[in-house]
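Troubleshooting log. The previous structure file for this entry was overwritten by mistake, so regenerating from the original sequence record. Sequence copied from the archived sheet and checked twice against the printout by T.R.
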Amino acid sequence: MEALDGNAIAGVLYQVFGGEMTTAQAECGGCRTRGPLAECKVYLGGPGLVVRCRLCHNIGIVLVEVRGMMCVDVGGLSDVELPAWRW
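Regenerated output below.
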């Protein structure tokens, strides 16, 4: 399965968080690498969307739609700095 960059799920992230999230600074819970979500690796082929760290490949975010509701797990991130639009 070929990985895409975080820009591939910009629309989904916008729907879930209510704003542009590809510029949000995220810190990997595995290797502590920090960077914009746009630089993460995204895999679309499974039952949901998987966002992995570009360096250590730790799973940072999983998004799955269940019965019309988007379920989001960000447990693989140790920190997310939201863009200025949020406040």
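Residues 4-82 form one domain. Archived copy saved in two places this time.
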